[in-house]
Amino acid sequence: MRQLNPLIFEMASKLSYLLTTWCLNAQGSPLFRRAGAAFNETGEQWLHSNLRGRINQAIDVGANYGDYLSLIKKYNPNARIVAIEAVPEFAQKIKSLHPEAELIQSAASNICGEEIAIFQKGGGANADPSRGNSSKLFKQHNIATVTIDEVSSKKDIKPDFIKIDTDGYDLKVLEGSLATLQKYSPVVQIECSRFWRFTGSDPSKIFDICKSIGYKVYVLRKKGIYELRSPGPLYGSF
Predict the structure, then answer these.
(1) What is the per-residue burial (b if ≥16 Cβ within 10 Å, else e) of 19-50?
(2) DSSP readout, 15-32?
(3) What are the pLDDT digits (tens) for 118-127?
């Protein structure tokens, strides 16, 4: 698996399970309580079962309440994990539930020290500034940014695995990780969703990045990964 250098996409609006269990449902309400079912249906469970014993160090960007931390630990219990979470409420939850994780309460991007807007909606957060039809808590957070390259250097972490799920800023996070990817060749799981349009992110750039650093792009499904040779299908997520 490691030799494939996969950059794996969750196609949030293409797979109904992803839309309803991993990202947001039609009402904009997160379903984190069904995390176990979500991971099983969307392929994360399959992915990490195949990475059992292969992850010594990991970076979880957009860690939310820490469900994904638990998944990594399930198959690699001794893994060192750095969790990056922008929303203060979520970061406090991680600190409480996962004291073993090295928590960074910041927003990841492609530039250090920049301030970006994160919009909290109930138990989730994304780059969409509209409230939508949700009656849940709506709050804007202006958060200073870090890059994965900076975190890797300052924390001396050599990741085998990086998960990026920031609902809009994902491409920028990837752009801020290129030195780390070139140096350590981690497996990377990244979400491509409709929230990318709020940050002006273009899926085709993923292929340019991958080509420049020797990575291939794969779609993550329930029981496997499938190589994606063009960005065309990703536009269906927008």
Answers:
(1) bebbbbeeebebbeeebeebbebbbbbbbbee
(2) SHHIIIIISB-TTS-B-G
(3) 999 888 899 9
In the numeric block, the tokens 């390259």 are attached to 149
- 48-105 pLDDT, tens digit each: 998 899 999 999 999 999 999 999 999 999 999 999 999 999 999 999 999 999 999 9
Q: Check residue 181 and give its pLDDT.
A: 93
Element (H, E) at 164: strand 161-164
Give the pairing type, strands 124-126 and 107-108.
unpaired
21: left (phi over 0), alpha (psi -120 to 50) or beta: alpha
User: What are the backbone dihedrals phi and psi of residue 20, each rounded to the nearest 5 degrees, phi first?
Assistant: -100, -20
Tokens of 58: 């990991």
Beta bridge partners of 162: 59, 188
Two tokens, residue 166: 């920031």
Domains of the chain: 2-237 (3.40.50)
Q: Which residues pair with 24 in a beta bridge?
A: 30
Whole-angstrom CA distances from 80 to 90, 101, 157, 212 are: 20, 7, 8, 28
Written as one string, the DSSP assignment of 67-78 is HHHHHHHHH-TT
What is the pLDDT at residue 224? 78
